[in-house]
Design the sequence.
């Protein structure tokens, strides 16, 4: 059973007091549980965060590497593959799943024993977006991958996901709350075949994606954390850490966003802030990287995203960038705080918190996700955003639906959850939904109620 995702899950992340510390400071727990002592807001310099001791692992366990369950293509034209535009298009069919095509880019020199990089496209995208300007990796990034003997793969969505729409993304479980492992099984098949047929480096299996594909990047990293080495998200977010396949693999993460104009229902500058907060809470090195280009992947961001993957193989806990960062990372908050995002209030007078708590109860928001701890923190640190939501009938209806379904934030905008209610009030970009998003973004920045979520 999945758990409600309070702002993409400040949840199940070491509620017993992992010894994480900021560089030069006392340990975060300082005699308390992490949930009592969590001080971050996702804007701190990445290199101020000490993920703790290196576990000393440099490759995934052999048992974690998937084996093919169907017939693998040969990764050559005519052997389960056909020639595409500058790439191969290969057919994969894991056991129990329909056959799907995957676009594959490989170096023409025949060296394919380096990294394997996944790319997941956005809502109305295509696999070719992986190498399309403003959507994926530029030519310089691809050359760096090829120089490392690497392979880029971009799956197609499963046919039954069509027609796609905002409330039904192309990728299964990209926003959580779907009990279907099809896309993760498909990723396993690609990995298994790439190891068997190409001999790719199992220490260097990475994942990336844009927008809806950015959400899916997080989900693949979580559900396949047993072998994922690192992840680059472009305008994406994090839904839940509950289903980490291997919680001991603290793979590094880069969260790229386009600043205040990077808005498509979700505000991706704020999503990056919240996700960095969550990743660090779980003990991962996470960078907040603002490129200022809106909802896109500018050349500089695409190059930085690829370089980040190449520089962070399996087992990396403390990033080498904290000793010396390449110039491509100038857009990332490594030694200076990130800018923008949400600034929660420092607190509120007790009388205001009491009055706010009463309003929440009067609105019927006292069950499931709206725990006593969450409401108290929200009223104290996000009172203005919460009050604005409660003043709006559409936002209040959306919050009641969220309470009924155990979802939170953009994850609620799915057909089987709260999309019908949200659509009745103007859609994901409508005033009611946007007030709810503003509230959930503030809760994420404030790290309210990180460990007390009820079951869905």
Sequence:
């Amino acid at each position: 059973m999945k758990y409600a995702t309070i702002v993409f899950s400040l949840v199940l992340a070491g509620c017993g007091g992992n010894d994480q510390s900021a560089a030069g400071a006392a340990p975060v727990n300082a005699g308390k549980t992490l949930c009592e002592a969590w001080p971050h807001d996702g804007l701190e310099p990445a290199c101020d965060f000490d993920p703790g001791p290196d576990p000393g692992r440099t490759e995934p366990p052999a048992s974690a590497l998937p084996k093919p369950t169907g017939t693998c293509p040969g990764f050559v034209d005519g052997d389960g593959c056909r020639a595409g535009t500058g790439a191969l298009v290969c057919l994969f069919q894991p056991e129990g799943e329909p056959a799907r095509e995957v676009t594959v880019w490989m170096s023409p020199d025949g060296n394919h024993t380096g990294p394997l990089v996944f790319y997941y496209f956005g809502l109305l995208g295509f696999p070719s977006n992986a190498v399309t300007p403003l959507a994926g990796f530029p030519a310089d990034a691809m050359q760096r991958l090829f120089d490392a003997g690497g392979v880029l793969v971009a799956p197609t969505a499963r046919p039954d996901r069509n027609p796609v729409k905002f409330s039904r993304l192309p990728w299964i479980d990209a926003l959580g709350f779907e009990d279907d492992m099809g896309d993760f099984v498909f990723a396993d098949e690609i990995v298994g075949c790439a190891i068997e047929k190409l001999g790719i480096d199992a220490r260097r299996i990475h994942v990336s994606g844009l927008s809806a594909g950015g959400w899916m990047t997080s989900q693949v990293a979580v559900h396949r954390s047993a072998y994922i080495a690192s992840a680059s998200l472009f305008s994406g977010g994090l839904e839940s850490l509950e289903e980490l396949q291997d919680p001991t693999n603290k793979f590094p993460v880069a969260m790229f966003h386009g600043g205040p104009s990077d808005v498509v229902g979700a505000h991706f500058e704020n999503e990056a802030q919240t996700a960095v907060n969550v990743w660090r809470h779980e003990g991962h090195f996470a960078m907040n990287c603002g490129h200022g280009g809106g909802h896109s992947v500018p050349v500089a961001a695409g190059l930085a995203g690829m370089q980040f993957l190449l520089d962070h193989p399996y087992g990396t806990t403390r990033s080498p960038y904290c000793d010396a960062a390449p110039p491509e990372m100038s857009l990332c908050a490594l030694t200076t705080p990130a800018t923008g995002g949400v600034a929660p209030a420092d607190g509120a007078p007790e009388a205001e918190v009491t009055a706010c708590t009463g309003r929440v109860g009067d609105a019927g928001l006292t069950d499931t996700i709206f725990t006593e701890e969450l409401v108290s923190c929200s009223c104290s640190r996000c009172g203005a955003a919460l009050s604005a939501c409660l003043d709006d009938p559409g936002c209040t209806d959306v919050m009641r639906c969220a309470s009924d379904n155990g979802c939170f934030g953009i994850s609620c905008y799915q057909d089987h959850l709260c999309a019908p209610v949200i659509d009745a009030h103007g859609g994901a970009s409508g005033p009611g939904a946007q007030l709810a998003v503003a509230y959930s973004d503030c809760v994420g920045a404030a790290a309210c109620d990180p460990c007390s979520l009820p079951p869905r």
In short: The chain has two domains: 1-39+342-456, 62-331. Residues 1-39+342-456 form one domain. Confidence is low (pLDDT under 50) at residues 1-38, 451-456.
